[in-house]
Amino acid sequence: MKKLDKLILRAFAGPFLLTFAVVQFILLTQYMLKYLDDLVGKDLGIDIIGQLLFFFSVLMVPVSLPLAVLLSSLMTFGTLGEHHELTAIKTSGISLTRILRPVLITSALLAVFAFWFNNTIVPKANLKAYSLLWDLRQQKLALDIRPGVFYNGIPGYTIKVDDKQGEDGEILMGVMIYDHTQGSGSMRVILADSGRMFTRFGGQYLGLELFRGQSYVEQPDANSRTGATFIRQAFARNMITFSLASFDLDRTKEELFSDNKMMKNVGQLEHFIDSLQNRLRTEKRQVPRMVSPYYTYLRFDTTGRAANRRVAEWQVPATRLPVVNASTLEQASNRARNVRAFAGSTGERLAGLVKESSNYRIEVFRKYVQSTAILLMFLIGAPLGAIIKKGGLGVPILVSILFFIVYYIFSIIGEKYGREGVMPVEFGMWMSTLILLPFGLFFLYQARNDSGLLDWNLWGKVPAKIRWPFRGYKRTV
């Protein structure tokens, strides 16, 4: 390896690691905010939060790498240009493409790594992350008894307190408990002037010690529907224990989530796409045969030779047509409605298969597009840094955010159009790359010729070049 390569790689490594860490943190924070409502108030342990953060940070790597390469390339070559190191290297007879080569090779290796990571590690991380997130969403909120509010979090009981005192709110005033464990409604009620709340047996049970209260039990009379026996019992101290098993985190088997498209690699996705396409072709071939019984006097040719001919070519001999009367019209009307309902349901089912196939194809192309984006961002960032010649975190961040937002917007638009069938999935997924690639090639051309983007002499020649095809043209009246 040449000393020049080592110099450029050392200048690139620091900004890349720094920007990658910053981008990971920003994207992870933005992603976690979407699920904040599902996590707050459930008394999750540090280990559960740590697992969720780790899995989601793995999912952010394919998105963080292109932006980190763009920003670090801008910073690296912008700093070299600002300190005139780039000029000194060019003066020694080394071309710009040779200067960019070590970072280009590094970007290519990162692109290969990103594809492997996106195809192998990300599906497993998706399975772990979203199965854990599903279980966290199903978990109940932590025990939170508020004054003046009926609390139904403990199965079989409804608790209401007038006030809570103490440092941790363990002292309860004005306690009312409805016992529904017998399945008889609100026939068992406990009232107490005060109480003390605490956990027992390692937090698996909730103990509620009540003071100066009464319990009321209503027992219906078996001989009379309107009659009932009412029992009241006073107590000075009463201990009630509630099970907190319903607040534990129950893990669902991960195999139940493995059929989702986000949990599959390219090979599995393509196999599933082939299955959907075969199913779609089979159902399309069965449509003429399934619609034929609705027609009494006109039968479809289901052999495939005439199944798609135009309706105008259908002919029915007059000898097969019956006398038109009210019964015939009613029968024809019913059959027409049945055909319409069959066509509508069949069309929706086929459209659903097409859309599902498009969704799986989008996941396949996403793995390739996100990997190629690393090379695209290098092609934009490195020449642009050599042109701007500004290092640091000012101009590079603004330019990086601008191009990444453009790339992200066109990616979302292309993906949406591909999913809705407005354009082919292939073109929709590659649209952002095709739009930004000319910019990267233009920046590379400008950097090789030492032309600045704000070179007024360059842009002043553009109108003359536009007028060139019209030279010698004389306006005639």
UniProtKB/TrEMBL annotation:
InterPro entries: LptG/LptF_permease
PANTHER family reported in the protein's UniProt record: SLR0882 PROTEIN-RELATED, YJGP_YJGQ FAMILY PERMEASE
UniProt main location, coarse: membrane
UniProt keyword annotation of Iron present: no
Cell location: Cell membrane
Membrane topology term: Multi-pass membrane protein
Transmembrane feature ranges: 12-33, 53-78, 99-117, 368-388, 395-415, 427-445
Record Pfam families: LptF_LptG
The keyword Cell membrane belongs to this UniProt entry's keyword annotation: yes
Name of the protein: LptF/LptG family permease
Organism: Hymenobacter tibetensis
The entry's keywords: Cell membrane, Membrane, Transmembrane, Transmembrane helix
